[in-house]
Design brief:
Layout: E1 9-13, H1 25-33, E2 38-42, H2 57-70, E3 72-74, E4 80-82, H3 93-114, E5 120-123, E6 139-144, H4 158-171, E7 174-177, H5 180-185, E8 191-193, H6 200-204, H7 212-215, E9 221-225, H8 234-243, E10 248-252, E11 266-270, H9 277-281, E12 286-289, H10 296-299, H11 304-312, E13 316-318, E14 330-332, H12 336-349, H13 352-360, H14 367-383
Parallel strand pairs: 1-2, 1-5, 2-4, 5-6, 6-7, 7-8, 9-10, 9-12, 10-11, 12-13, 13-14
Antiparallel strand pairs: 3-4
């Protein structure tokens, strides 16, 4: 598919790592735009070094170092990808000055490799604020996808994160929000709601076969796909697993050491390639999102996985995330009792017409349409000469 944005150079400071995250909004959109534009995807420069007391400390360090060794590469039919080396001490003024030098040198070198000059800068992480005015950008976009100051992954203080966030909002031509709650609470006049989307055909097309490891697990199966970390409502999962021992929980994704559940009907299958997810969904009876409702970071989430669940047509039972309140075909709960009642209802009464309602709710919200929408926004800003940053 052709998009209206052509012949441009784009540098994206992402909030994720291309090599070990399932595709997020930036991945989906930039892979599409890279066919007609030069694109450099800068892997996340992090939210600060985790505390040594964090059970995932060595896991996170090992994963980051592994990504450093890849440093720079080209994705087949996709963008160039850079994992820049930086110091994870954003609360230190000295470290920030060193980071600015390190990041500018590495990104400029990668831009030289990609033959990129005068790029459109798409910034998705606050800590890139110190370098955005040193890359000769013709346009600066700031994409806010989370309540960054509420993130519990790093050791950087809330006030420092808010400082970076304010700088980017002041410098940007446009501040884009992918979460409805974030957008509605924003007081930034130059804001835009860039709604999440879904790879509809990938998830709506049922796999021919079931993945072997999930096929061995008895049904009914409650399935979750994604990061398994501090946002999970572990007490709820344990209570439901105890009260309904014939229901089997299946978690697909990378598991944090913070999540420790031991029950015969709870299964952790580990991360799976994105291409293989439909083969797992085929055997899942109910897709679930058992996130904590008392967590500020979670409450602002827009969870692309929910749209993927809906595209598959599977019933969805989830915590009352603001983003999806009132969405057709979704059942929410506020207690273990309500969770059990919702699952029992879909296991007994779900039908093909409800499946169609769920799929229709996201059928037109594809990454192709979202990519074209953003292409039009960028093209309009460029025509109007609104850069938002001094080149």
């Amino acid at each position: 598919m052709e998009y209206s944005l052509k012949g441009e150079s784009i540098v994206c400071f992402a909030g994720e790592n291309w090599w070990y995250h399932h595709p997020h909004s930036k991945n989906h959109i930039l892979k599409r735009l890279s066919g007609q534009n030069r694109v450099l995807f800068v892997n996340s420069i992090g939210m600060g070094l985790p505390s040594p007391s964090n059970p995932d400390f060595f896991l996170k360090i090992r994963r980051k170092v592994k990504s450093y060794f890849r440093w720079y590469g080209k994705v087949p039919n996709g963008p160039h990808v850079l994992t820049p080396v930086s110091l994870p001490f954003y609360g230190s003024n000295l470290a920030r000055r060193i980071n600015r030098v390190l990041l500018l040198a590495q990104v400029r070198l990668a831009m030289l490799f990609c033959r990129i000059r005068r790029p459109v800068l798409w910034v998705c992480i606050p800590f890139a604020a110190d370098v955005v005015d040193g890359l000769g950008a013709k346009l600066l976009l700031y994409h806010v996808s989370d309540k960054y100051e509420a993130n519990q992954d790093g050791a950087v203080s809330r006030s420092v994160i808010q400082e970076f966030d304010r700088k980017l909002k002041d410098k940007s031509a446009l501040v884009m929000y992918s979460g409805r709650k974030l957008y509605e609470e924003s007081e930034v006049p130059h804001r835009y709601f860039l709604e999440q989307a879904v790879d509809f055909d990938h998830f709506a097309t049922e796999a021919r076969e079931t993945a072997p490891d999930i096929a061995l697990i008895p049904r009914p199966i409650l399935g979750y796909i994604g990061w398994i970390d501090y946002i999970m409502d572990v007490p709820l999962i344990e209570e439901v697993a105890r009260l309904r021992p014939d229901w089997h929980w299946v978690f697909i994704g990378r598991k944090s050491n913070l999540v420790q559940i031991s029950a015969a009907n709870v299964h952790f299958l580990g991360p799976k390639p994105y291409a293989e997810l439909p083969a797992y969904l085929r055997h899942i009876d109910v897709c679930v999102l058992p996130w904590r409702t008392d967590n500020e970071f979670t409450s602002y989430g827009s969870a692309i996985k929910v749209r993927e669940y809906l595209a598959s047509g599977k019933p969805v039972v989830m915590a009352p995330l603001y983003e999806y309140l009132g969405n057709p075909g979704i059942r929410t709960y506020r207690s273990a009792k309500e969770f059990i009642a919702a699952v029992e209802d879909v296991l007994s009464h779900d039908n093909s017409s409800q499946r169609e309602v769920r799929q229709n709710s996201v059928r037109d919200c594809t990454w192709d349409s979202r990519t074209e929408e953003l292409s039009g926004v960028i093209a309009s800003l460029l025509r109007n000469g609104r850069s938002g940053v001094q080149a």
